[in-house]
Every structure is written in C-alpha cells, then in structure tokens.
Design goal:
This protein has 141 residues and is of the alpha/beta class. 42% of the residues lie in helices and 14% in strands. It has a single domain, classed as Rossmann fold, CATH 3.40.50. The protein is built from 5 helices and 4 strands. Strands 2-1-3-4 form a 4-stranded parallel β-sheet.
Length: 141
C-alpha cells in the first residue's frame, strides 16, 4: 500500500495541462507524492505536450488520457484543478479530508498562430506549471 499523499491533477480533457503537471510532479516530487491525472473527458494525449515535456527532459509519451475516477478523487490528499472549466465542473468530493486547490493556466491547445507561436504558448504554460510544482514540492502546498 502506498502511504504517500496522493495528488490528483484535473483539467478538461487530460491532454495537456494535467499531463504536464503529472510529468513534473512525478519527476520533481515522485519521492514524496503519488501522482495521478484525469479530465472531465478523455481527449487523448496532445503530441505538442509530449514534445515540450521531452524538451524539458521528461517523457510523458506513455501517459494515458483518463476520465475522473470518483474513488481516486475521494482518496486524494490534494485535488488540483488546472483550468476554470474543471474547477467549476469537478465532481463533488465526498471526503472532507481532501484539500481542493485551483491553479488556473491558459489552455495551450487553444493557441492560434504559426506552429512556432503555438509551441511558444505550450512552452510558456509548461514553464508556469513547472514553477508551481516546484513551489508545491518545496513548500508542501
């Protein structure tokens, strides 16, 4: 049985932001936390998210896009929503011991422009998520 606190990252499609957060938390805090991610829907793993994480030295290519599991939700220590839609539509958490937090990030999958501009948005969101994860691992919240 895993006794590490469980961090459950949620977003709309479990394709970009929550996958990036999952990758960073496993890499930077996997010794302290059990990590899972999911979405209100499963949109599949975004190839650009995989690419920007590879640039950061983290391979998330084997990750799966999952739908929120109520059992995991209610046994989590922390439920962290990464977009307003997931924050507003997160299923009710029945366990009063779960700490729910909201870290809002723009959806890089909605970026418009040239491929270079879109990838710049993915990198910007990736770096912002990394900074937030580093603070969480360092400060415990």
């Amino acid at each position: 049985m895993n006794n590490k606190p469980l961090v459950y990252f949620l977003c709309t499609g479990n394709s970009c932001r929550s996958q990036i957060a999952d990758g960073f938390m496993n890499t930077l805090g996997g010794d302290k936390y059990e990590v899972k991610s999911a979405g209100l829907e499963a949109h599949g793993l975004n190839p650009r998210a995989v690419q920007v994480m590879k640039e950061a030295g983290i391979d998330i290519s084997g990750n799966q896009s999952n739908v929120i599991d109520p059992e995991i939700l209610n046994r989590s220590t922390y439920v962290i929503t990464l977009c307003g839609h997931a924050d507003e539509h997160c299923p009710v958490i029945m366990n009063p011991n779960v700490t729910k937090m909201h870290w809002g990030f723009e959806d890089p999958a909605q970026a418009k422009g040239t491929e270079e501009e879109i990838m710049a948005q993915f990198r910007s969101v990736r770096d912002a998520i990394k900074s937030r994860i580093e603070a969480f691992v360092r400060d415990g919240e």
